[in-house]
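Minutes, project check-in
Item: structure for the 157-residue chain
Input as provided by the requester:
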Amino acid sequence: MGALAMREDLMDLFLKILRDRAQAETIVVDAALTDALGRLSRLLAHLAADLQVEHVGPHVGLGEGRDAFCLAVRAHEEAVGSRAWGVRVCSAGPHASLRADWDLPAASRLRKAVIVRALPAFLAGYVEAVAQAGRLSTRSGERLSGIVRALSARVAV
């Protein structure tokens, strides 16, 4: 097996983990899920840097504070004066200005389950935003569309 084929298999594996967990009745949060979220976050950072299209998605807060946090793709302030494109869990309050609070794999165990459940809708909305910006036909736009297809495929039972 060549290096490229092995890389694609690993990529497919992490997307399958996310797809299967998102569709499961109960989401198991373990090292495999954390690794899959990390791989997705790194891939989306690369694609977002190329696409440069912002998208604010579903709320991923917990309990009564469900609306306090959301997923967002944008150029986040990583350090004072330093911005980087990617997806983060952000404060969604009116005065928070979508402040990036956590990278996907750094979220708490409870929040990871909420994030995984929200990923298919979040990424479908991101694809729509990329399409509206006229960037869907780019290589990064096509890769993003492939991720959405992989996450929305039905799990065989």
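Outcome recorded: The CA atoms of residues 7 and 13 lie 10 Å apart.
No further action items on this chain.
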